[in-house]
Structures are given as C-alpha cells and as structure tokens.
Design a protein that fits this description.
single chain, 338 residues, alpha/beta, Rossmann fold, Dihydrodipicolinate Reductase, domain 2, 2 domains, six-stranded mixed sheet, globular, binds L-homoserine
C-alpha cells in the first residue's frame, strides 16, 4: 500500500518506526507491504518519491529537523507543497498526523477532503477533524467509496473505537465515561509521589505524551475533544464543544492532592459523555474506585450498553509508538477489505 503522511512529528515518526521495525511481521502475518511514498511537514520540508522512501533515512532526516537532508536520488521530489503532495501523489492512503486544532479542525480537514477527492483512504491521528467535522468527512468518503478511520485519536493504540464500532456493533451505547488524557493522568500520578506540577508536565512532554501545545492537555480540551469524538461517532450524537463543560487540572495544587491522599482518595480527570452533552473535570475518587488504579499514561473508558451493561477497556492512552500503533491498526483494517 502506498502511503503519504501529512504531519511528521512524534506520532508520524512513531508510525514509520513501527513500519520499519515490523516490516517482516506485517508482510508475513498480513500480506502488508507498506510503502511510504511521501511526507509533508509544515516547516521541515516535503518529500515524494513514487517508488517509496527509505524509512531509516527518512527518520534520520526528521531527527536532524530538515527533510531536505534526505539523500537525493533520481525521481525524488522535494519542492512540492503539502497540497501538491496530497493531490499529485500516487498514494492509496493519506495519514493525517498534524497537530490537532480543536477550535477549527483546520488545515487538516481540508487536507482530508482533498485526499478523498483524489481517491485516497484517510487515516487520522488528528483529533480536531473528527471532533468537529466528522459528518462532513465521512460523507465525502462515502461519496468516493473510501474509508476514513480514526483509531489513534482516542486512547492512542488501545482499541477504544474498534471496541465500540465492531465488538459492540450490536449494542446500544448510551454513555461513555473514563480517563481520556494520558498527559494529565501521568502528571496526577507523578504529583501523588511528590513531584511538582511543572516537573510532572516537563516529564510528560519529554516522554512524548503531551500535545504540541500542552495547554490542550492540562486545560482539559484534549479530553473534551476525545469525548466529542466518542459522542459523535459512537453514541450517535451531534455535539459541539459548547455541549461539553470543560475544566482541566491547572487549578489543582500539590496541597489538594495531599489532602485527598490523607483521606484515602485521589484526583482523576474524568470525561463523561452521552449523546446529549458531557463534561471533563477533575473528580476526587475513593482509592477503591477502579479508575483510581489507572495510573501513569494509562487511560480507561467504560461504555454503558444495552444489553451488556458496562464494558470497560483499560490501556495505554498516549505515546509515540503507542499512537503510531493506532494508525497501523487502521491501515491493517483498510488492507483487510481492499
Ligand atoms: N496529548 C494526548 C494525551 C496524546 O496526553 O492523551 C494522545 O491523544
């Protein structure tokens, strides 16, 4: 499968690293030969080669911070814009992994529509597109009989979307509740051991959990975006950000966390959503609550369903390879039917 990546930061590079390291397994177990033919970044260059790029050399060029340091070869194009790469490349799949804009969903939504117009499947790590414009992008995909998939947008590679859309396809899901942001859960866990807010945030950034602008994590917007994604794709809702009451962890002090600990409680940033609205806010939980045991960058989601009752999934919620794995899962799902 010929693939282009639009956005080549932490997640895009994690995905390419998985393709490189798992190439033999993917070919043997799934018959997948993934050929990355193009990569576009906003400020570090665009590369395209119709025969495919060398993944080692690509990762090295990215680490040097300039894709133009990728070795030149006959047929290599490096003067296209992102729009040209999307429209003119021979790719069958576009992976959109630019930073999520939860206010406008742009420019990623336009990239997706352009990719679909030019008959490419779309796989998203970008949360803004799905949270704000899913109906439009899904309709555009249906019109050209292409797929738009977004496993990586919620709980990174942990299959929260697949569980709902496939495993629970025959159920009615009425509500989703859980911990949907890895950065803040990691920070709260570290602060429980005495770390300062600033040190905990710096460590979450170093480990590749945080958004490009970590305000989205600590102010609750990233979790709210994921709640919107679940509401509008899985619960059948039609919500906007205005339907989610959002409060992050910025007001929580080490003293608050210590006070909770002294009475056997802890704070978790809980997202709670139904088809009619929802909230994201820090909640003080008894240590006996199962969500209190969810620590570090681990996330959890409970779907309230008919007729099964509550179904809970716990797994990693953020990270370079972990989110790359969500993209790989979508690529395999497309591969399975095309
Ligand atoms: N910044 C996000 C988080 C990344 O911490 O959960 C995964 O979506």
């Amino acid at each position: 499968m010929r693939i282009i990546l639009v956005g080549f930061g932490t997640v895009g590079q994690g995905f390419v690293q998985l393709l490189r390291d798992q190439a033999a397994f993917l070919r043997q177990a799934h018959g997948l030969i993934a050929n990355v033919v193009g990569v576009a970044t906003r400020s570090r260059g665009v590369l395209y080669h119709p025969n495919g790029l060398d993944l080692d050399a690509l990762l090295m060029a990215a680490q040097r911070g300039d894709l133009h340091t990728y070795p030149d070869s006959p047929g290599l194009i490096h003067d296209w814009t992102t729009e040209e790469l999307i429209a003119r490349s021979s790719a069958e799949v576009m992976i959109e992994a630019t930073p999520s804009n939860l206010q406008t969903g742009q420019p990623a939504t336009d990239y997706c529509l352009r990719a679909l117009e030019t008959h490419k499947h779309v796989i998203l790590a970008n949360k803004g597109v799905v949270a704000l414009h899913y109906a439009q992008v899904k309709a555009a995909a249906a019109a050209v009989q292409k797929q738009v998939r977004f496993e990586a947008t919620v709980m990174s590679g942990t299959p929260a979307v697949a569980l709902a859309q496939q495993g629970l396809a025959g159920a009615t899901i009425t509500r989703a509740r859980g911990i949907l942001n890895g950065t803040t859960n990691y920070m709260l866990t570290l602060m429980e051991t005495g770390a300062t807010y600033q040190d905990a945030l710096a460590e979450a950034q170093r480990l590749g959990y945080a958004e490009a602008d970590p305000a989205a994590d600590v102010e609750g917007w990233d979790a709210a975006g994921k709640a919107l994604i679940i509401a509008n794709t899985v619960l059948g809702g039609c919500l906007t950000m205005d339907d989610i009451a959002v409060e992050g962890i910025t007001q929580l002090t080490p003293a608050d966390i210590r006070d909770a600990q002294t009475v056997g409680e802890c704070y978790r940033l809980i997202a709670d959503v139904t088809p009619h609205g929802g909230s994201v806010r820090p909640v003080r939980l008894p240590l006996s609550d199962p969500l209190a045991a969810v620590k570090g960058a681990t996330n959890a989601i409970t779907y309230d369903t008919e007729p099964l009752g509550p179904v809970t999934l716990i797994g990693v919620g953020a990270g370079r390879l972990q989110t790359g794995f969500g993209l790989l899962a979508d690529l395999l799902a497309i591969r399975a039917v095309s």
